[in-house]
Amino acid sequence: MKSLVIDTPSSNSTIYCGNGAFAERTAALAQKKLFIVTDSNVFRLYKAHIQGAFGNAPMYILPAGEHSKNYSQLLKILSAMLSAGVTRSYTVVAFGGGVVGDIAGLAASLYMRGVNLVQIPTTLLAQVDSSVGGKTAVDFKGVKNIIGAFYQPSEVIVDPLFLRTLPRREIRCGLGEIIKYGALDAEIYKKLKNNSNALFSEEFIEGITYDCIVHKAAVVCADERDTGGRRKTLNLGHTTGHAFELYYKRKSHGEFVLIGMYYEIFIAKQLGQCDVDYAESLVKLIKKVLPSIPAYADAQKAALFAKYDKKNTRTSLISLIVPKCEGESVEITLPAERYCALIAQCAEQLDQRRK
Ligand code: NAD
Ligand code: GLY
Q1: From the CB of residue 151, how many other CB atoms can be counted at a distance below 10 Å?
Q2: Confidence (pLDDT) at 340
Q3: pLDDT value at position 234?
Q4: Residues flanking ligand 1, CB < 6 Å
């Protein structure tokens, strides 16, 4: 098991990563007073693990899925905490994917103005990204992550054990975020390129998970509150991905990140911002994970949802983080109409290629 510390002005968060991390770290946690948040799928699959590790600790089980990441479920969690007699001496354990981590993290930040939080991510996406760095949120009025807080967990326990039950589609979602890291970090990019035929293998995923966490930890240490410019690089692919996610409401977050990256790489190429061979190589990686990129007929309309992106300073200007060359990304800002037109052009090109 490896470990690393995220040391920020407001907190100290230790990440434990590797086989055996769950058994080892929960043995220490069991001494504490705990409140568990999980979801219905994870509870069904891991009831024995939860009961074995946490005994009869009070628990809230969310209905599985993004639709549960809302304020009404948030209030239900807070209400269950109050009914269970949770005090400031308790630790909230978020045991599940990114949805559980985001909403349980927000509940922990609000209850009694903040109780200790431990993240135990059970999806690949949550292990490489959402459980690390302290961003918590719920969706509101159709806008993703619009109500939230920065709230660091005291520890994150990343154990590949849980990935064995993940459907391939969820592995694909995690690989979406991993490719995002590849577009930001030259070492991760090289590993992805050298293992492009083994991206789904357990061994590859285990190694690259730690690399992604190391990258994210460095970014969070440098710019915890997402104000200094460094943390927004983690949004590569997400502006368009989130816009499509809001509009189409069909696929899951990680798949939209892959689709968003594809469309944004097209824009970067059109605007001469990305080295062409490098762009092609990133597209190849994306297609290894998601072979068919949708040629959305109404992509232009969907792209309008990018105006909600938190990087924008005005809704008439869209800000994107795009890959430039190996290990380097760049922020570009373009008028919303131009952005939407380029998105439509990318969709048309995809459609032409299909015919
Ligand atoms: P999720 O939590 O909905 O999990 C995906 C599915 O996998 C769910 O059906 C869940 O029940 C199931 N599942 C979880 N663990 C499992 C396991 N071990 N075996 C089998 N099934 C399992 O979604 P996600 O992809 O983990 O996370 C997406 C969410 O994370 C989005 O809401 C996104 O906005 C958020 N996110 C947050 C950050 C952040 O920094 N806070 C970063 C990236 C994404
Ligand atoms: N997932 C983006 C961030 O943590 O900033």
Answers
A1: 18
A2: 96
A3: 97
A4: 39, 41-42, 45, 64-66, 69, 96-100, 102, 122-123, 125-126, 129-130, 133, 135, 144-145, 162, 165-166, 170, 173, 252-254
